[in-house]
Amino acid sequence: MIYVTLPTTTEEKRLTYYLAMEEYVARHMDSDDYFFMWQVTPTVIFGRNQLIQSEVNLEYCRTHGINTFRRKSGGGCVYADKSNIMFSYITHDENVNLTFSKYIGMVVEMLRKLGVPATASGRNDIMIGDRKVSGNAFYHIPGRSIVHGTMLYDTNMQNMVGAITPSDEKLISKGINSVRQHITLLKDHIEMDIEAFKAFVKNDLCSREVVLDKAAMDEISRIEEEYLTPEFIYGNNPRYNIQRQGRIEGVGDFVVNIEMKNDVIKDVDIKGDYFLVGDIGQQVIAPLIDKHLTKEDVEAALPDRLDDVILNLKKTDFVELLLNK
User: Fold this and answer.
1) What domains are defined for the chain?
2) Which of 25, 163, 178, 221 is 20 to 30 A from 130, comparing alpha carbons?
3) Measured between alpha carbons, how far apart are the two ends of the chain, in Å?
4) Which pTM was predicted?
């Protein structure tokens, strides 16, 4: 695997630059699997299909100087700062489950070499004991897959909780205690500082390094422009007259807004922390347009294999959610 890096003289970059860098590597560098690490000033990054108003405490973020950005991968809300290391992995593998398994397996094995009893958990987490130290998300482009995620070396716990919870000090305080029961900090399990740990990761996972040139960096800046538009960050949230909410185990939380006219479906908006692996617009939303919101019409309209669109989603579970039964 090849380590990708920026010139040492490069000025500090915001989170969106590194997301664009992933895309650049995936689209323009294809001789091997690639990996790089990055750190950012305090930032909340939320999933491709999430409603920012529902997931992020925007007032807390504004007050505390925390940036907010959207990524193109699915999954939930993440807080990052300089004490937390972000990992990016780009591969030719296109199967979601195999890609997650391969990447998480590599990271788990690397941590075990340091004496850390790390294990894989669920679809995208790495645990030490019963506490999470890393969460990861997946993004697919034709011919390549990107996995990116956190490595929780250390963090500002107050910001982590405050940025993604309601603006109530008691809730924030309670949230910190709850979060501390479910996550762990890597610094408490290894005797090396963050820079020494990063050096170990690089040497263990990668066999050589490539430094991006100015032309590559300029193209990354061009790709980054999309991530910075208000339309991409905040999205368009039109009003709908039916809303379904629920959690489907092993898939994620859903908020489905349905616009109805004359008893037929005219538009559908599907938000949540699920992982998208297909074209939700063409494969799920388009078939529902102009159909009645009945079990018969919905089942007939939707494809049998919804897990080709949303990771691990069963048709029966989604139909049940839409009908709110």
Assistant:
1) 2-234 (3.30.930.10), 242-323 (3.30.390.50)
2) 163
3) 48
4) 0.81
